[in-house]
Amino acid sequence: MSETRECAVCWWVYDPALGDEDAAVPPGTPFEALPAEWRCPRCDAPRARFVRPRAEEEPPIEARVEALTLAYERILATRMAGLPIQNPRLRVEAVSFQPWGPGLFGVLVTPWSINAVILGDPDAEVPLHGHERELPSGRYTFFPQRLEGVGTIEIASLISPVLEMEDQAAAVATARAAAALMLAPPEAQAPPARTRRELFGFLRGRGDRDRDRDRGPA
Ligand code: FE
Question: How many A from CA of 43 to the centre of ligand 1?
Answer without folding.
Answer: 4
